[in-house]
Task: inverse folding
C-alpha cells in the first residue's frame, strides 16, 4: 500500500541547535521538534494549513482522535501478533489484527473533509486497502474461532481436556442472586497466557476449525501495516499543535494561519513568544514584526530583562511554525517560506581548549556556512564574552556579512556602539519610572535620518538597489 | 441506623448543647432503662430526635406492635445478635482471603470456598428464620409489615432455595472428588475467565478403558472420547502454573459468594442496633407501667399541643408510683408563648421540665407519661437554665449574666421558625429591672420569628407587657397547680 500521508516529511534540514535554542521540551516533544526542523515549501505549507485548520475544528476533532486511537490499536495488535508463539494464540491475534485494520481504515476514510491531504488519504485507503476481502476473511475467521473460545478441564487422577463448556457455578449463583436482587460483581479479566500444551490440545479437539483457520490465514492479503502506522507520528504532530493552540487560547493568545508571501518577508501584528507558556510567566506581551524586502536586518538593544530574548524567540518559534505549515501566534502575519533558520544563543562556558571568544567566532563562522539563499539568522548576545571594543567590531562585521548575503537577521546585543552604524534598530520600551513594558519598538536612532529609513523600507536604498542587480 | 424500622434519613431537630442535662433526662433514664446498651440506644435518639412527622409515627406504630407482642422483639433480637456474630467471623474470613489471595494454592482456595459457601448458606437460613418469625407474629405497623414483605421477597422465590442448595453443594469437596473448570479465551487467545463447573454437567468418558469383545480383549487406543475429550495428563503436570490456573476459579467463586453474604450483612445487621432502641423503649414503658403511670403515643398535630395528665419524667423516675407526681394539663397553639410566674418551690421548673421532656420523647418516637396528648413537631428544642458560674471562664467574659447573654446569642444563631425555647429564670443574674428590660426584646424576637417559648421567671416586670402582647401568663397555685391568668 502506498499512502501519501497527512504530511510530506522532508529532511531535517535545520540544525538541532535551533530546537535547543527555541523549543522548550515542555511544549514540544521530540517528534514535534523533528518535524518543525524540516521546513516545507509553499505547496506543503498550504496543504498543512488546510489540514490543521480541519484539526482545529471542534466537530472534526472527535473523528480525528478516533482515527488516531484506531491506528494505535492497530500498532499494538501488530506488535502482539509478531510476538505470538502459540498457533492458537496466532489465530486469535490475526483476527484481532484484521479487526483493528478495518477499524483504522474506516476511521481514515472519514477524513475526506479534512483538506486536500485528508481527501487524498481517504481515497487511497478506499482504493488500496482491500477492505471487502479483509472483512470477508475476518467474518469467516470469527466463525471458526468461536468454538475454540471455551474449553474445560476435568481433574481427578487424570486430566481431561474437553470442548464441552457447561453453565458455570458462577453463572448459576449469579442468576439466583439476580432474581433476589443481590448484586453480582463483574468477573475479573484474567489475561493469563495459554500454555503450548493447552493450545495444542484445543486445536486437536477442533481439527476442522484449525485447518480452516490456516487456510484463511494463507488466503488473507498481505496487509501493509507500517504504511498505516507511519501516520501515527503525523497525527500526533497535528494534535500537539492543536494542544498548543488550546493552551494559548486559555491565556487569550490569538493564532492565525500566516499568509504566504512570494517575496521574502516576515511581518506580524501582535506576535507572541509562546515558549513562555512553558514557564509561569503571568503576562505575555505581544509585539510587531518588521522584516520586509527592504528592511532585512535589525539590531535589538535595550535594558536588561526588557524582553529582547523573548522577542527573538517569538520570531524564531513562529517562523518554525510557519515553515511547518502550522498556525502562528499573532493577530495577523505574512511570511515567506525561508529555506533556513539559524540561531546562535549563549551556551554554557565549558570551552575545551579555546577561550569563549574563539569558540564563539568558530561557531558563528560555522553557522554562516550553513545558510542558504533565503535564510533568517537569530543572534542572541553573540560575542558578549569579549571586551566591548572587540565584541562590537565582531558584531558589526557579522552583521555586514549577513547583509551582504541578502539574509534576514536579528541581533540582540548590549553593544550600543552599533547604534552609530547604519543599521536598523529596535529597542526595548521603558515606561514610567523606568518600568519595563516588554514592548519592542522601532528605534530610528540619533544618526539615522527619517528619509533613509523610508527608502530602506521600500528597498530603495543603495544596498538594496545593488542587490537587485 | 437507616432501615425499614428506622428510616433515619428525615430531618433532625436541632437541640441546644445542654438541653438533655437541663431536663435531667440522663438521670431519669438511668432508672427507667437500667440496661446500658439499651439506654445508650435511647440516648442516641433523644440526642438527635426526628423532625419528620412520618418518621415519628412510624416508630410509634412499631413500638406499639412490640408492646403488644414483646416475644416478637426478643426473638428478632436474638436472631440478629447471632447474625451479627456470623458477620464478625465472615470479616475474619475475608481478611484471611485477602492475605492468601494470589498465592495460587489450590488447597487453600478449596478451603476458602467451602467456608464461604457455608457462611452464605447460614446467612440465608437466618433470614429465612427471620421471615418465619414475622409471619407468625402478624404485625400491623407499617415498618414491621414492610420488613416482613422484604423477607418474603427474599426467601419465597425458588431462587432462594436454589441458592441454598448451591451453597450446600460447595460446602465440602470430597478429598478425591472432581474439580472441573471451564475457561474462556479473549480476542487475543489469552485465558480471560476461569470458572468452576459441576462434574455432572461435563460429559467425559475415558476412552482407554479395556473392552471385551467376544473371545478377544481389545484395548482401545487413546483418542478423543465421545464428546471430544483428550487426556492431557502427560503434559499438565502439577506445577506452579497449573496450581495458579486451577486455584483461580475457586478464589473467584469464593469472592463472589462472599460478596453476596456481605450485601446481606450490610442490609440486615443494622437492624440489631435498631432493635436495641426498641428494647430500651420497651424497658422504659415497662417501668412506667410498674409505677402505675399512664403513658400514651401523642398524635401529630400541626397547629396545637395538648396534654392531659402530663407528669415530669425525672420525678417519676424517683417516685415509687405515679400518684406521687402532680400531673399537668395544657392546651396551647403551636406558636403560643407561655410565661410562668410563682413563688419559689411552687413547681415552675418541674412544669418546664415536664413539657420539654415530653417534646423530646415524642420526637424520638417514644410514648410520653400522659393520659392523652396531641403535639406539634418542633424544628428544634433549646434551653437556657440559670446555672452556676462556669469555671475557667475567660478573664474578659466573667460573670453569670454575661454567660447567659452568650448562651442566648449562640442560641439565636441556631434558631429556626418552629423551634421551642425553654427559659428557666433567665437574666435573673442581674438587677431584676435590667434583666426584664433586656429579656423583653429577645422574647419579642422569638414571637415575631415563629419560635415558641416557655419562660419560667421571677421577673414580674415582664408580666404586664407580655400579657398585653398575647403571651399566656400562668401562675403557680396551691398544690403545685398552674392557673391561667386572664
Result:
Amino acid at each position: 500500500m502506498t499512502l501519501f500521508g497527512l504530511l510530506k516529511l522532508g529532511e531535517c534540514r535545520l540544525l538541532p541547535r535551533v530546537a535547543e535554542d527555541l523549543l522548550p521540551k515542555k511544549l514540544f516533544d521530540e517528534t514535534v521538534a523533528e518535524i518543525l526542523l524540516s521546513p516545507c515549501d509553499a505547496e506543503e505549507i498550504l496543504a498543512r494549513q488546510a489540514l490543521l485548520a480541519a484539526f482545529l475544528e471542534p466537530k472534526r476533532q472527535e473523528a480525528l482522535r478516533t482515527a488516531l486511537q484506531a491506528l494505535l490499536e492497530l500498532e499494538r495488535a501488530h506488535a502482539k501478533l509478531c510476538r505470538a508463539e502459540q498457533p492458537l494464540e496466532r489465530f486469535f491475534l490475526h483476527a484481532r489484527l484484521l479487526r483493528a485494520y478495518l477499524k483504522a481504515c474506516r476511521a481514515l476514510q472519514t477524513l475526506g473533509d479534512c483538506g486536500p491531504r485528508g481527501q487524498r488519504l481517504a481515497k487511497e485507503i478506499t482504493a488500496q486497502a482491500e477492505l471487502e476481502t479483509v472483512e470477508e476473511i475476518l467474518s469467516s475467521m470469527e466463525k471458526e474461532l468461536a468454538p475454540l473460545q471455551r474449553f474445560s478441564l476435568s481433574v481427578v487422577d487424570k486430566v481431561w481436556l474437553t470442548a464441552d463448556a457447561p453453565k458455570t457455578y458462577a453463572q448459576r449463583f449469579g442468576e439466583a442472586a439476580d432474581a433476589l436482587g443481590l448484586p453480582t460483581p463483574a468477573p475479573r479479566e484474567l489475561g493469563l497466557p495459554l500454555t503450548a500444551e493447552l493450545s495444542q490440545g484445543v486445536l486437536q479437539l477442533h481439527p476442522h476449525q484449525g485447518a480452516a483457520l490456516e487456510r484463511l490465514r494463507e488466503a488473507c492479503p498481505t496487509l501493509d501495516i507500517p504504511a498505516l502506522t507511519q501516520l501515527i507520528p503525523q497525527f500526533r504532530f497535528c494534535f500537539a499543535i492543536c494542544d498548543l493552540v488550546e493552551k494559548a487560547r486559555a491565556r487569550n493568545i490569538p493564532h492565525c494561519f500566516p499568509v504566504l508571501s512570494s517575496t521574502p518577508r516576515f511581518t506580524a501584528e501582535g506576535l507572541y513568544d509562546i515558549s513562555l507558556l512553558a514557564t509561569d510567566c503571568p503576562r505575555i506581551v505581544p509585539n510587531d514584526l518588521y522584516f520586509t524586502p527592504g528592511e532585512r536586518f535589525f539590531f535589538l538593544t535595550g535594558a536588561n530583562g526588557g524582553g529582547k530574548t523573548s522577542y527573538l524567540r517569538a520570531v524564531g518559534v513562529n517562523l518554525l511554525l510557519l515553515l511547518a505549515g502550522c498556525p502562528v501566534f499573532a493577530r495577523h502575519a505574512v511570511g515567506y517560506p525561508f529555506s533556513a533558520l539559524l540561531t546562535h544563543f549563549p551556551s554554557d562556558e565549558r570551552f575545551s581548549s579555546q577561550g569563549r571568544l574563539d569558540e564563539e567566532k568558530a561557531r558563528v563562522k560555522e553557522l554562516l556556512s550553513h545558510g542558504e539563499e533565503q535564510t533568517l539568522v537569530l543572534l542572541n548576545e553573540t560575542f558578549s564574552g569579549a571586551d566591548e571594543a572587540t565584541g562590537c567590531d565582531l558584531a558589526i562585521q557579522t552583521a555586514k556579512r549577513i547583509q551582504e548575503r541578502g539574509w534576514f537577521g536579528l541581533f540582540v546585543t548590549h553593544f550600543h556602539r552599533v547604534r552609530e552604524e547604519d543599521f536598523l534598530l529596535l529597542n526595548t520600551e521603558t515606561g514610567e519610572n523606568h518600568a519595563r513594558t516588554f514592548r519592542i519598538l522601532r528605534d530610528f536612532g540619533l544618526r539615522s535620518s527619517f528619509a533613509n529609513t523610508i527608502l530602506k523600507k521600500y528597498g530603495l536604498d543603495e544596498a538594496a538597489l545593488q542587490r537587485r542587480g | 441506623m437507616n432501615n425499614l424500622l428506622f428510616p433515619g434519613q428525615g430531618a433532625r431537630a436541632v437541640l441546644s448543647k445542654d438541653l438533655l442535662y437541663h431536663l435531667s433526662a440522663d438521670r431519669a433514664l438511668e432508672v427507667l432503662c437500667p440496661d446500658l446498651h439499651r439506654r445508650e440506644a435511647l440516648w442516641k435518639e433523644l440526642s438527635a430526635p426526628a423532625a419528620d412527622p412520618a418518621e415519628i409515627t412510624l416508630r410509634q406504630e412499631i413500638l406499639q406492635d412490640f408492646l403488644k407482642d414483646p416475644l416478637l422483639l426478643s426473638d428478632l433480637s436474638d436472631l440478629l445478635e447471632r447474625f451479627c456474630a456470623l458477620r464478625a467471623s465472615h470479616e475474619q474470613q475475608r481478611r484471611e482471603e485477602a492475605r492468601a489471595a494470589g498465592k495460587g494454592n489450590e488447597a487453600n482456595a478449596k478451603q476458602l470456598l467451602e467456608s464461604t459457601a457455608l457462611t452464605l448458606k447460614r446467612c440465608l437460613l437466618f433470614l429465612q428464620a427471620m421471615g418465619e418469625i414475622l409471619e407468625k407474629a402478624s404485625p400491623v405497623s407499617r415498618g414491621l409489615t414492610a420488613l416482613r414483605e422484604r423477607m418474603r421477597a427474599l426467601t419465597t422465590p425458588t431462587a432462594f432455595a436454589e441458592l441454598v442448595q448451591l451453597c450446600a453443594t460447595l460446602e465440602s469437596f470430597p478429598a478425591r472428588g472432581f474439580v472441573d473448570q471451564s475457561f474462556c479465551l479473549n480476542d487475543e487467545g489469552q485465558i480471560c475467565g476461569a470458572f468452576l463447573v459441576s462434574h455432572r454437567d461435563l460429559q467425559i468418558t475415558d476412552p482407554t478403558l479395556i473392552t471385551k469383545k467376544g473371545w478377544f480383549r481389545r484395548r482401545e487406543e487413546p483418542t478423543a472420547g465421545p464428546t471430544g475429550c483428550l487426556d492431557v495428563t502427560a503434559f499438565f503436570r502439577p506445577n506452579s502454573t497449573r496450581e495458579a490456573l486451577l486455584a483461580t476459579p475457586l478464589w473467584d467463586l469464593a469472592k463472589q459468594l462472599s460478596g453476596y453474604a456481605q450485601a446481606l450483612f450490610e442490609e440486615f445487621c443494622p437492624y440489631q442496633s435498631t432493635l436495641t432502641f426498641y428494647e430500651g423503649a420497651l424497658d422504659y414503658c415497662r417501668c412506667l407501667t410498674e409505677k402505675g403511670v399512664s403513658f400514651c403515643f401523642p398524635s401529630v398535630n400541626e397547629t396545637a399541643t395538648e396534654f392531659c395528665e402530663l407528669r415530669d419524667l425525672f420525678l417519676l423516675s424517683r417516685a415509687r408510683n405515679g400518684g406521687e407526681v402532680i400531673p399537668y394539663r395544657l392546651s396551647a397553639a403551636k406558636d403560643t408563648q407561655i410565661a410562668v410566674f410563682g413563688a419559689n418551690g411552687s413547681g415552675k421548673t418541674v412544669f418546664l421540665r415536664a413539657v420539654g421532656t415530653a417534646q423530646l420523647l415524642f420526637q424520638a418516637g417514644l410514648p410520653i407519661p400522659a393520659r392523652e396528648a396531641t403535639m406539634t413537631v418542633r424544628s428544634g428544642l433549646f434551653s437556657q437554665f440559670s446555672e452556676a458560674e462556669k469555671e475557667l471562664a475567660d478573664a474578659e467574659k466573667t460573670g453569670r449574666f454575661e454567660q447567659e447573654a452568650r448562651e442566648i446569642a449562640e442560641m439565636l444563631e441556631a434558631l429556626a421558625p418552629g423551634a421551642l425555647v425553654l427559659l428557666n429564670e433567665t437574666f435573673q443574674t442581674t438587677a431584676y429591672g435590667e434583666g426584664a428590660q433586656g429579656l423583653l426584646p429577645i422574647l419579642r424576637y422569638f414571637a415575631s420569628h415563629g419560635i415558641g417559648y416557655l419562660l419560667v421567671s421571677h421577673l414580674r416586670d415582664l408580666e404586664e407587657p407580655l400579657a398585653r402582647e398575647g403571651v399566656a401568663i400562668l401562675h403557680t397555685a396551691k398544690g403545685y397547680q398552674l392557673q391561667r391568668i386572664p
